[in-house]
Amino acid sequence: xxxxxxxxxxxxxxxxxxxxxxxxxxxxxxxxxxxxxxxxxxxxxxxxxxxxxxxxxxxxxxxxxxxxxxxxxxxxxxxxxxxxxxxxxxxxxxxxxxxxxxxxxxxxxxxxxxxxxxxxxxxxxxxxxxxxxxxxxxxxxxxxxxxxxxxxxxxxxxxxxxxxxxxxxxxxxxxxxxxxxxxxxxxxxxxxxxxxxxxxxx
Length: 202
Prior knowledge:
Helix content is 40%, strand content 0%. By secondary structure, the chain is mainly α. It has one domain. The longest helix has 26 residues, at 89-114. The model is unreliable at 1-11 and 198-202 (pLDDT under 50).
């Protein structure tokens, strides 16, 4: 995978706690833990109090119920941004050059390195907002940091992801990619590299 400078994320225009409740876009991250050491849980919108997600259903991590999980994720403003974000041509070309199978391998490696450990040294800032479709997917399905994973998917932070937990998040990422890029072939596609024009001789 391409290496990224994680030290400073490009401004997105919204934050993880932004809301636009009048237009049905909320934030379900609670303002504080009620008990030290307790699992971060999603709940009603932190701005308007709307209780729109059946958390027991989402937290069950049932891949057969992914339609409901995706519907719930789209109700959160930050997730909505990435469900509707435009991919750059560079990001599309990256996906085409890999193909679905290799992209799956890349997504697994990305998840292992960015959120697979108990805590990332740049926790909360380890997933850039753009660069590959995998990065868009991580934000869209709340697999971008351990805080989001904890309150959306009920996977506690502070311990490495188990193989089953990693597999579940990988499936969410790949199902997002399948929805956003339905025509992506399984194998790689040869895409010409766009080279910069050589500077004209003076």
